[in-house]
């Protein structure tokens, strides 16, 4: 097996056994990145990576370190990294060298991980195809004419293309799960408040949540062990102990009750995606799970709800980018207003401007009740639907995305693009944890299965996903390498 | 209800964005189609439903009122477009 097809768990054993060093491993991935044309990275931090790899090797030689010591990874360019450009995929922050580390960056450093670079993404995490990056489209490793999904498209492409053993991602409306699904990898969005948002450039603060993107559920558990935890620097972080997410991976899932929301299998879902998802559910039945139909009647309103709530929060969050303290400033501003107007207009891309304007409008006097307040009420109804469903079932399953990866450049109008988020938005609106795991292929493109769990059920989700991955080999399949 | 180009121009200005006439035209179309999507919300009965402010209905955590941040103004200002005497500089506002 090529070294880059190994999981974190396997690489960790190899490092401890001295089969290879972290320096060798890191160089191997850097070489792959340098010859890749996926455009998965905005910045490659080769010098820093080699330094971190050397430090990790020194630790391992002394018998110190932990299970992740010396493992390389791709870091989504939304996490601030001290001394390294942090662009959020935007021209606005093309010159932003972060003066501090996000809590997630700090934790990954403390765990002796090796950062290969900063992964490409949709600008400020707004997008479902990674076509909104100032630094260019990312290509899907399974078919380079296809989108990788978004907004964590660079992260997903890096893991699927074996340019990194794992990547970090963030998920506001599906941005971990959807690209994971379209690229055929494992992605986990934890419960809101589980991973600190400090230093993670905010898009919609009440929805944003970071998580791991990996080959396997076992690897996701190893990475979440490091990422998760209370952080007093994030006022929405929850004071709750971190479990060992690997502890229950091997538990039996006999007797598990799976809920299938009928609304997730209606109009708009591609037939082949539906049949792959149902085949995966059948697999679970053969493993001793039972299946029950549930209803999430308000989930149909997830799209309008999300596309009001998120733009409102983004218009507020992005108001700080004004060309004064950091980031892009226009040339020769003639006065302060010109400075604001031109810096923002030249610095932001189309989709970001669109969402800022939607938010500014929906929050403005006279419209606040009809849009923002109404959406926050609907959001409550959506979360109540889940509460009811979880009285009867342990986990909800369904598709992640209505189709497999579509052609680059093929979806042009924003509303059609938003409709692709139909199955992922509800979990963010309710704050619930969700996963995407590889569940098959349709015309040589990966299909993901979505798992949505109750609050704080990350261990359970990882257990269910791991058990599935013991019975199936979808997660071990890799795109063909170019000669 | 739909927004006119003039209204979209006003919204853009409130958000400190300036749009070219082409952008104004395309954004008016896009904003109107997004808002008509949002109109679906009007179909839902939300009487007596409280708006959801936090997914876990948490209240804001308080902390002791003491200084926890050290002064990092120098490193923060290093990346600013223009500074002087520890201030951020912008074009003259008052003559």
Explained architecture:
The complex is a heterodimer of chains A (483) and B (95). Chain A has 483 residues and is an alpha/beta fold. Chain A has helices at residues 8-17, 22-35, 46-61, 103-110, 153-160, 177-183, 217-227, 271-286, 302-317, 336-347, 350-362, 369-392, 414-419, 425-430, 458-471; strands spanning 41-44, 72-76, 114-119, 166-171, 186-189, 209-214, 257-261, 290-294, 395-399, 434-442, 445-453. Chain A starts with 7 loop residues before the first helix and ends in a 12-residue tail after the last helix. The model of chain A has no long low-confidence stretch (mean pLDDT 97). With 95 residues, chain B is mainly α. In chain B, strands 1-2 form a two-stranded antiparallel sheet. Classes of the chains: A alpha/beta (483), B mainly alpha (95).
Trace the largest sheet of chain B across and list its strands: 1-2
N-to-C CA distance of chain B: 44 Å
Number of helical stretches of at least 4 residues of chain B: 3
Radius of gyration of chain B: 22 Å
Query: Averaged pLDDT of chain B, please?
Result: 92
What is the count of β-strands of chain A? 11
How do the helices and strands line up, and which of them pair or pack?
The complex is a heterodimer of chains A (483) and B (95).
Chain A: H1 8-17, H2 22-35, E1 41-44, H3 46-61, E2 72-76, H4 103-110, E3 114-119, H5 153-160, E4 166-171, H6 177-183, E5 186-189, E6 209-214, H7 217-227, E7 257-261, H8 271-286, E8 290-294, H9 302-317, H10 336-347, H11 350-362, H12 369-392, E9 395-399, H13 414-419, H14 425-430, E10 434-442, E11 445-453, H15 458-471
Parallel strand pairs in A: 2-3, 7-8, 7-9
Antiparallel strand pairs in A: 1-3, 4-6, 5-6, 5-10, 9-11, 10-11
Helix pairs in contact in A: 2-3, 5-6, 7-15, 9-11, 9-12
Chain B: H1 5-14, H2 21-38, H3 73-78, E1 83-84, E2 87-88
Antiparallel strand pairs in B: 1-2
